[in-house]
Amino acid sequence: MPETKTQNQNQKYKARRGLSFLWLKILSAVNWLLNLFYLKQSQRYWGIVYDSLTKQPLDPVIVKLLYVDGREVETCVTDLAGRYGFLARPGKFKIHARRTNYAFPSRYAPGDGDGIYENLYHGEFFQLRGDYEVVGPNIPMDPLGQDWNQSAKLAAINKSPYFQYLFKMLAAILFWFGFILDGVYICSAFPKIPTGLYVIAAVYLLLLILAVSLPEARLWGKVLADSPAAPGESLFLELGDPRFPGMVFGKTAVKEDGKFLLRSNKGKYTLFISKLGAGGQRSVLGQMKVSVGRSGVLNSTIVLRQLADGY
Amino acid sequence: MDNSIKKILVVEDDDDLRKIMVSGLSVFNYQISEAADGERAVEILVDSKPDLVMLDLLLPKLDGFGVLERLRGYPDKSVSEAKVIVLSNLWSDKDILRVKALKVDEYYVKANTNLEEVFAKVKAILSGMPAPQ
C-alpha cells in the first residue's frame, strides 16, 4: 500500500511538473513574440558584458559582486554570449569586471543605454531591498587595443547585435504598419466589413491585451524541500549530459530560501542535486531530466521530497 | 632541478586569466610554464615535456585543437602522453566530441567552473602519477 501511495504521489508530481513546464514554455514563447514586435521589453535573465564599440559580447570576463568594503560576495565568468548574473540578498553592493585588453568602467558608453543595450552599469554602488534578487545589469567595457580573442570570435559567430536590432525594428514597423492598414481597411469598408479583417483585428487586440496582462516569466528557479537544510549544509545544482559524463554544463548554489540562478545553453540535461555537508563532504540527493529553453535559464520548481522518494 | 617536481604548462591567451591560473597553481610545488598562443605551447611541450597541460581552445596562431593534435601525434611518448585539462568557453557538441576524440583527461567550461575545482583536479591527477625517473 505505501508503495502505491508513493507511486500515486509521483504520478501527481509528474503531471504537475509537466503542466508547470508547459506553462513556462507558453509564457516564454508569447513573451518572445511580444518582444519581437516591441510590445513588451525583453526580460533580462542575465546581464551581458560587451564591447562598448562593437557591441559584441565579451568572454571570458571575470565579474565580481562586492560588498561596500570591497569584500567579495561571489565571482562568475561570462560565457561565450557574455552572460553573467548573481542572485543576491538585500544589501549594498558594487560590481567589478575584469578582462585583458578592456577597461571598466566604460567611458565610451556612459549613459543608461546605448541604443542596443539598456540598464548599463558603470561601477556605482547599488542597494538591494526585500528578497533575494537577480543582479545583472549590462556592462560595457572599452577596448584598449586589438584583442585577438574577440576578433576570432567575431569571425566565428558571424552575428551582429546591430543586425539583430535592425531585424527587431523592422518586425515592429511591419507589425504596426499592418495594424494601421487593417484599421484603415475596416474604416473604408464600414459597415460591410469582411470577416478576415475582423480576425486580423482580433489577433492584434489579443496581442495587445497579452502585452499588458501577461505575467513575466520567473528569473530564478526554486528548490522546495520538506525540511530545510541543516546549519552549515548547502544544496548545489549541476547540469550534466549523459553523452558527456563528468562535464558540467551549468552549476549553482541554492540560496537559503530555496532560490537559485542557473544558466546554461538551450538543450536537454540531467540535473544533479547534491548536498554539501558542514564537513565538506558532498552527497548526491537525486537527479532529474530538465530542459533549458531559449532564455538560457532553468527557472522551474524542484521538489526535493519526490527526488528522495526515487523519482 | 628536482626530478620529482611535476611540470605544468598553462596555455591561455587571456593574460589576466592566465596570471590567475599560474598564481593559483604556484601554491603547489609545481614547475609552471606559460604560453599565450598555440605555437608557443607546442614549442614548450616539446622542450620541457610537461606532465600536465591546461589548455584553452580559442588561441592565436594555432588553436587548442591543433595543439592537441600535434601533442597526441608526437612520436616521443613522454610528450604525447601528457595529461590534458581543457578549460574553454566552447561547449558545442561538435567541439566536445572533437576534443574527447583527442583523449583529454578533463573538459571544463570556463563559465561553469570554479578555478579552485580545476586546481584540485590538477593536484589529483598529478598526485596519481608516478614520479619521473
Explain this structure to me?
The complex is a heterodimer of chains A (311) and B (133). Chain A starts with a helix and ends with a helix. Chain A has five helices and 17 strands. Chain A is 32% helix and 27% strand. With 311 residues, chain A is an alpha+beta fold. In chain A, strand 2 and strand 3 form a beta hairpin. In chain A, helix 3 (161-189) crosses helix 4. Chain B is an alpha/beta fold and 133 residues long. Chain B contains six helices and five strands; from the N terminus they run βαβαβααβαβα. In chain B, strands 2-1-3-4-5 form a five-stranded parallel beta sheet, with helices on both faces. In chain B, helix 5 (93-101) links the parallel strand 4 (83-88) and strand 5 (106-109). In chain B, helix 2 (38-48) packs parallel to helix 3 (64-73). Chain B is globular, with a radius of gyration of 14 Å. The model of chain B has no long low-confidence stretch (mean pLDDT 90).
Q: How would you sum up the global shape of chain B? A: globular
Detail the poorly predicted runs of chain A: none
**Class based on secondary structure composition and strand pairing of chain A:** alpha+beta
Largest sheet: number of strands, sense, barrel closure of chain B: 5 strands, parallel
| Structural shape of chain A | globular
What is the count of structural domains of chain B?
A: 1
What is the rounded distance between the termini of chain A? 18 Å
What is the straight-line distance between the termini of chain B?
13 Å
CATH fold descriptor of the largest domain in chain A: Immunoglobulin-like
What CATH architecture of chain B do you see?
3-Layer(aba) Sandwich
Q: For the report, how would you describe the main beta sheet of chain A?
A: 4 strands, mixed
Number of domains of chain A: 3
Q: Please give the number of β-strands of chain A.
A: 17
What's the CATH C level of chain B? Alpha Beta
Superfamily (CATH H level) name of the largest domain in chain A: Immunoglobulins
Write the CATH fold name of chain B: Rossmann fold
Instruction: Figure out the total of helices of chain A.
Output: 5
Oligomer: heterodimer
Q: Please state the average pLDDT score of chain B.
A: 90
- From the alpha carbons, calculate the radius of gyration of chain B and give it in angstroms: 14 Å
